[in-house]
Amino acid sequence: LTLTLELVLEGQLGNLWGRRRMQRDIDKLEGHAIVCGYGRVGRAAAEQLAASGVDVVVVDQSETRLESCPLPHVIGDATDDDVLRAAGVRTAKTLVASLDDDPGSVFVVLTARSVNPDLFVIARSRTDDAEAKFLRAGADRVVNPQRIGGNRIAAFADSPDVVDFLDVVMHEGRHEFRLSDIEVHAGS
Predict the structure, then answer these.
(1) Cα angle at 43 between 47 and 33, to 5 degrees?
(2) CA 38, CA 169: separation in Å to the nearest integer?
(3) Is the dihedral of CA 143, 144, 149, 151 positive or negative?
(4) Does the pTM exceed 0.90?
(5) Are 97 and 109 in contact (CB under 8 A)?
(6) Do residues 72 and 58 make contact, with C-beta atoms less than 8 angstroms apart?
(7) Which residues contact 100 (CB under 8 A, 6 or more apart)?
(8) Would you say the C-alpha torsion 163, 169, 174, 175 has a positive or negative sign?
(9) Tens digit of each residue's pLDDT (9 = 90 or more) over 68-115
């Protein structure tokens, strides 16, 4: 009985200390990206951002999905103000709203925009008619993965070599060239 109790307490204390350490690390971040929803689209976005050197915090309410997440994460409902604050929304640069449903993602956009007006917000839309709602809620960009997938398939059918070239330039980090945005300030 003592051994069982000790193992249970050690595991729970270890988890508690790990969560506190992770929260302290999250609290120190500035200019990071928050990815709300760690499903297929959210996971891909988080991995791509992390691979490009951006600090990423993932928010999801499913502990099971986050078990395999190597990035700092917050377990909770992303529509909750306190959960977004725990993810560092006040000091974040970017937020990706990629929940399983459009109404939840719209609510995340509204909440995040109200807490941090300077945040760059990207919303994942599941339906075509939701795009206008996301923009009214304060999203800077709206992405519909199904539409992008269809456009990509059509592009491969029309110009496969061009699409392959753009994939190498935009998504493979092992080459010496890369396209990116560079801000040129006045008087530079």
Answers:
(1) 65
(2) 26
(3) negative
(4) no
(5) yes
(6) yes
(7) 37, 39
(8) positive
(9) 889 999 999 999 999 999 999 999 999 999 998 999 999 999 999 999
